[in-house]
Design goal:
single chain; 305 residues; alpha+beta; 3 domains; 7-stranded antiparallel sheet; 5-stranded antiparallel sheet; 9 helices; globular; cytoplasm
Length: 305
């Protein structure tokens, strides 16, 4: 259950106090199957698996929640093909063209016919809430998906004013300085991946490097040409690897063997105990990383209600 991506938000101490009622609030917003005429539904499922009832799982100051959704699979190509068939039939039977308004009506009729028979695709997204430190972390690299998850939490709680990160220092400039100088904070080293762009030319060339020495002359030439770092592969304390974006989204998160080996020594007599061990180990490592991100970029916690 180790997270693979991190989209981050922060909330105030006052908001943290309201999370004590989270289990009861989520219970009224459990995920349900799509109705016959619904394209999608959103809600919460147990982070402990399909046979469990609890919608939150806590270890210390951390809570684990799982946002679920079901989306009907109704390919546009299928709808358009059926629409074309109906339009041709009208032309053949009645000898006239189908106008825009009638075309919309026919398309809606097709959707109404096909939707009850469409398959549903389930998806799940893990969410970690650190109450003491004020972090809400979505296991997703998609800002849109994370915002949807945040909306689900707000609907369940009535209010959940978690805010996107607002770095006090420019991540793009700091990462460009790291790559240019090779002078990184203690415990942080370059990996083998980066994305470089010219910030003055939105439509300009994008340089994406993977499995490449980032201190090479080729990379330095791009930097001398004015390109800046938009994504940078990094390793932290030889325990975690990730790609940090200028949007402060952490992608391709990987826990190295030194961490996963610690789980092999843990004595877990049940699935729940094993999950506790994994969740505790993951959150401990990520709390250290998030504290450093706050130190390097300035990611203040809101102090309002």
């Amino acid at each position: 259950m180790f997270f693979r991506n991190l989209t981050l938000f922060r909330f105030s101490p006052a908001v943290a106090e309201n999370l004590g009622e989270l289990e009861a609030a989520l219970d009224e917003h459990r995920l349900r199957p799509c109705g016959a005429m619904e394209m999608s539904t959103h809600g919460f499922v147990s982070p402990l698996g399909p046979d469990a009832e609890a919608l939150t799982h806590g270890v210390g100051d951390s809570l684990l929640v799982t946002v679920g959704s079901e989306d009907k699979l109704l390919p546009a190509s299928v709808v358009n093909e059926e629409l074309s068939r109906k339009v041709r039939k009208v032309a053949e039977d009645e000898g006239r063209r189908v106008g825009g308004r009638e075309r919309k009506r026919l398309k809606q009729e097709i959707l109404d016919q096909l939707m009850p028979r469409a398959f549903s695709r389930p998806s799940r997204m893990q969410v970690w809430l650190q109450r003491k430190l004020g972090w809400v972390v979505f296991d997703s690299s998609s800002r849109k998906a994370a915002e949807q998850g945040l909306t689900n939490l707000r609907e369940a709680l009535g209010s959940f004013p978690a805010l996107p990160l607002a770095p006090e220092k420019s991540p793009r400039q700091i990462m460009t300085d790291w790559l240019t100088s090779g002078d990184l904070p203690a415990g942080l080293t370059l990996s083998d991946e980066c994305e470089l762009r010219d910030p003055a030319n939105a439509g300009g060339a994008v340089v994406r490097c993977r499995h490449q020495e980032l201190e090479s002359d080729e990379i330095r030439e791009h930097l001398r040409g004015g390109k800046q770092v938009f994504q940078l592969g990094l390793e932290f304390d030889e325990r975690i690897g990730f790609v940090l974006g200028e949007d402060m989204v952490i992608r391709k998160l990987k826990f190295f063997d030194v961490i996963t080996d610690e789980l092999d020594h843990a004595q877990a007599d049940s699935v729940a105990e094993e999950m506790d061990a994994r969740f505790a180990l993951m959150t401990l490592e990520l709390e250290r990383l998030l504290a450093k991100l706050d130190e390097w970029f300035g990611l203040p916690r809101p102090d309002g209600a």
